[in-house]
Design goal:
40% helix; five-stranded parallel β-sheet; 224 residues
């Protein structure tokens, strides 16, 4: 899956048409707000990110993507009408994998995407976290409970990943906020409780493995 963030409808439409014609699944977004909403549903194999966007610009979005653990390793190709060396160096220094200055050819775009994915795929290791009947595939970003695939939001996945990485360890609500939510998040700890409740429901019988430690926080049973 390729995510394309481009505010020009015509350019975005052409890119999506080209990607689909090349046999690649793709979704398009006009700004950062739409992108982050989609990232809460699924993680792409690569993001095409325009620098000049309405509202939050591409550089700021790139910084956020690289700062958050769940999106930090997603390959990103920056695109922009600005072809100055400064813009290119800034994007690459902040963690972009490649850079395309507009106007660019669609065949070149496909070639760049394939090249970045070839470099990236060998680094993706199949890594699992599991406790009893719960299994998280970190490479595929999937969750299995009692042998059944479970669809989780981005935050629910990160909560479960954290619990499975340290079974038996008690996490306070404050530490969960700091680890799973953006460091600038200023919400209440009730946010954690609500996500834990939904996570338990989605995991079915396995949801009981997430225990409440009264007055402290939560932990996943199975530790020493």
């Amino acid at each position: 899956m390729i995510f394309c963030v481009e505010d020009d409808d015509a350019i975005r439409g052409l890119i999506l048409y080209t990607l689909h014609a090349a046999g690649m699944a793709a979704r398009g977004f006009s700004d950062g707000e739409e992108l982050f909403a989609a990232l809460g549903e699924e993680l792409p194999d690569l993001i095409l990110l325009d620098i000049m966007l309405p509202g939050e610009d591409g550089i700021s979005i790139l910084k956020k993507l690289r700062r958050q653990s769940v999106t930090s390793a997603i390959p990103i190709i920056m695109t922009t009408a600005k072809g100055t060396e400064y813009d290119k160096v800034t994007g690459l220094d902040l963690g972009a994998d490649d850079y395309l200055a507009k106007p660019f050819g669609m065949m070149e775009l496909i070639s760049r995407i394939k090249a970045v994915l070839r470099r990236y795929c060998p680094r993706r290791e199949r890594d699992f976290l599991s406790v009893n009947r719960l299994v998280v595939d970190l490479a595929e970003h999937t969750v299995t409970a009692d042998g059944e695939r479970v669809a989780l939001t981005l935050k629910e996945f990160e909560l479960l990943r954290l619990f499975l990485s340290s079974p038996g360890v008690v996490f306070t609500r404050e530490s969960l906020l700091a680890s799973v939510w953006d460091t600038e998040f200023t919400g209440e700890t009730r946010t954690v409780d609500m996500h834990i409740r939904t996570l338990r429901q989605k995991l079915g019988a396995c949801g009981t493995m997430i225990e409440t430690v009264r007055g402290v926080g939560y932990r996943l049973e199975g530790g020493q």
